[in-house]
Amino acid sequence: MVDTQVRLERCFAAALPTLSAAQIANASPASVAAWDSVASVTLFALVEEEFGVEIEVQDMQELLSFENLLGYLRRKTGESAA
Taking the model in full, what pTM does it have? Predict the structure, then answer.
C-alpha cells in the first residue's frame, strides 16, 4: 500500500509540475511563486479525488502547505507519521 506522503507528493507534482521532489516537502504559497489560487483549487481537487475526502472550505486556508495538508490527511485516514 502506498502511504499518504507518497500519494500527496504525486498530487503536488501534478498541480505544481515545476517543483522538484525536494521542493514539494517544503512547499507553501510563500515558497512557491507558481502557487496561485488556480494551483490551490487544482491541488485540493486532486487530493479529494486521490484520498476520497472532502476538504471543507473553512479548512482550506490552514492547509496551504505540504506539511499541513499531510498532517490533515493522516488524521483523516488514521495513518500515523513514520
Answer: 0.90
Per-residue pLDDT tens over the stretch 12-66: 999 999 999 999 999 999 999 999 999 999 999 999 999 999 999 999 999 999 9
- CATH architecture assignment, domain 4-77: Orthogonal Bundle (1.10)
For residue 55, give Cα distances in angstroms to 6, 18, 23, 72.
19, 24, 23, 10
Tell me the domain boundaries of the chain.
Answer: 4-77
Determine contact, residues 82/38, Cβ cutoff 8 Å: no
Q: Which is it for the CA torsion 23, 59, 71, 8, positive or negative?
A: negative
- Which residue from 12, 34, 30 is spatially nearest to 21, judged by alpha carbons? 12
Task: Show the cell assigned to 65.
Answer: 502547505
CA distances from 49 to 26, 32, 52 (A): 22, 23, 5
